Amino acid sequence: MSQGSPGDWAPLYPTPGPPAPPNPFVHELHLSRLQRVKFCLLGALLAPIRVLLAFIVLFLLWPFAWLQVAGLTEEQLQEPITGWRKTVCHNGVLGLSRLLFFLLGFLRIRVRGQRASRLQAPVLVAAPHSTFFDPIVLLPCDLPKVVSRAENLSVPVIGALLRFNQAILVSRHDPASRRRVVEEVRRRATSGGKWPQVLFFPEGTCSNKKALLKFKPGAFIAGVPVQPVLIRYPNSLDTTSWAWRGPGVLKVLWLTASQPCSIVDVEFLPVYRPSPEESRDPTLYANNVQRVMAQALGIPATECEFVGSLPVIVVGRLKVALEPQLWELGRVLRKAGLSPGCVDTEAEPGRSRMISQEEFARQLQLSDPQMVAGAFSYFQQDARGLVDFRDVALALAALDGGRSLEELTRLAFELFAEEKEKQAEEKEKQAEEKEKQAEGPGRLLYKDGFSTILHLLLGSPHPAARTLHAELCQAGARQGLSLCEFQDFSVHHPLHGKLFGTYLRPSQTPNASSPDSVPALANGAVQAPKQKGD
User: Fold this and answer.
1) How many whole angstroms separate alpha carbon 225 and alpha carbon 197?
2) Residue 418: HSE in the Cβ half-sphere, 13 Å Cα cutoff
3) Under a CB-based contact definition with an 8 Å cutoff, are residues 277 and 284 in contact?
4) Which CA distances in Å does 516 have to 457, 461, 513?
5) Segment of 180-184, 287-291, 511-515 carrying the highest mean pLDDT
6) Is the dihedral of CA 144, 150, 152, 154 positive or negative?
7) Residue 217: CB partners within 8 Å, gap ≥ 6?
8) CA angle, 12 as apex, 10 and 18 as ends, to 5°?
9) 385-420 in b/e burial notation, b at 16+ Cβ within 10 A?
10) What is the value of pTM for the model shown?
11) pLDDT digits (tens, 9 = 90+) for 436-477
12) Which uninterrupted H or E stretch holds 229?
């Protein structure tokens, strides 16, 4: 299999048509020898001074942010601040914020297009979101309100700036928080211009600017017109991108502050007014705005997104994790000196057997409590903290590498297929006769088993896998897949088969004798270990 760059995850299989989009979660920064010398010199002389002055200005922002909300009750903060507080504090924060970015090297902010009024577009959506420098877009937008995590309120200075901004706060730990945020966004967006505009980064996380991630529907729930805002960094060297895999926070900050001059382009596109159908369907609205912005940027619009803490890419009809947790589990087991093939993984086909962490440790012959807890956490637990032993058996079989892809998918089917529901349709009987020897009479793979297999082997999110299962079952009248149908999808399909084979690589899985081995990416390129120590 040809070796390539970790940033190129597609195409997995030669197919006609336009090339697949680049991986938006990986940013590789290649410096020439001359550039390295330049950054060493400027990084030692210019960057420390710039960063020090920028932090001084950041702390000077605090008094203005505090003064605007000082003495106001929570009830008063539910309405937009006006009067002298608005005039003095708003202008003070705006001026100091521009000075802060100027000191960090952003000497020019070039603005194209015209910003719409709050009546024309109550909501602004900015993309691509590629770096922690992106809040610079707030300056030409006259400091609109933002949406932020409630946890950020406890961060020094940042918390004060969020209170100054009257930001809409969402808590990841409070299930009711998202509902309150939706209601607050709708209230402000439909206030008839009473509230300033609200700015969203609809991708929800940073990418490398080479493709737009899937837009989340939060900015579009109110069904009001939005104005797309494009952010570009047209510099000769991209030091600003802060992707899931690539330079860390300190390196991005140091390299950008070492640049003699950084330029930012902010472009306001025409206001996008939703159709009645888009107003009723926030997801459709978000997808259409994403396509408009991608076309203006000249980059592809993708279905890639973050699900939990893992980036998910789209290959064919599959959503798969860029780096499935199965790979990390393999590294943990190899570090413990455990060979998956030496573990007795006899699981009863079609029936779950829930095991505790203690039984898991005995089964895998692990003694280190920390190692046991780490390996056990890779499996989905029920309310009692137990995991299905079938999950463990399939994961270890995949990591063992002793089975071909056909054998592995057959094992997966045998573990998770269930007795077929009583739907005796005459047209199925002939096909079933050919399958009986392989799959056993009347056994089908239903959506829960299908999603579990895809989640374990490829890191596919459960909802996406269940949706795909429903699509695959539409061809027939039953609600499950036979072994032949499952293997047609996972083994014999030219694209999905290549994906399964490359992610699992049953004939090339590293063994316990090579703990430093690393798995391959979906294009066959060897995955380098993460280096995010900074």
Assistant:
1) 11
2) 11
3) yes
4) 21, 28, 9
5) 287-291
6) positive
7) 282, 283, 285, 286
8) 55
9) ebbbbbbbbbbbbbbbbebebeebbbbbbbbbbbeb
10) 0.76
11) 444 445 688 998 999 999 888 888 888 888 888 888 887 666
12) strand 226-232
CA distance 485 to 409: 11
CA–CA distance from 46 to each of 151, 233, 254 (Å)? 33, 20, 10
Residue 531's contacts (CB-CB under 8 Å, 6 or more residues apart) are: none
Q: Please, are residues 126 and 229 in contact by the beta-carbon 8 Å criterion?
A: yes
In angstroms, the CA 93 to CA 108 distance is: 19
Token pair of 392, please?
Answer: 């463990």
The yes-or-no verdict on residue 221 having pLDDT over 80 is: yes
User: In this structure, which amino acid lies at residue 132?
Assistant: F
- CA separation for the pair 374, 102 (Å, rounded): 45
Count CA atoms within 13 Å of residue 322 on its CB side. 25
* Tokens of residue 154, six digits: 């406890």
- Pairing between strand 145-149 and 198-200? parallel
Greatest C-alpha distance within the chain: 82
Q: Please provide the distance, in angstroms rounded to a whole number, between the alpha carbons at the two ends of the chain.
A: 33
| Strand intervals (E) in 328-379 | 354-355
Position 303: which residue type?
E
Determine the average pLDDT of the residues in 118-134.
94
Taking a C-beta distance cutoff of 8 angstroms, is the pair 455, 307 a contact? no
Helix ranges (DSSP H) in 166-272: 177-189, 249-258
CA nearest neighbour of 493 among 12, 8, 2, 3: 12
Asked whether 524 and 507 are in contact (CB, 8 A), the reply is no
pLDDT in tens, 48-101: 999 999 999 999 999 999 999 998 888 888 899 988 988 999 999 999 999 999
Taking 3-state DSSP, the helix, strand and coil percentages for the chain, each rounded to the nearest 5, stand at 45, 15, 45
8 A C-beta contact, residue 392 and residue 344:
no
Do the beta carbons of residue 346 and residue 390 sit within 8 Å? no
* Strand residue runs (E) in 326-406: 354-355, 387-388
What number of other Cβ atoms are within 10 A of residue 431's Cβ? Answer: 12
E strand or H helix at 297: helix 282-297
Q: Which residue has the tokens 């966004």?
A: 185
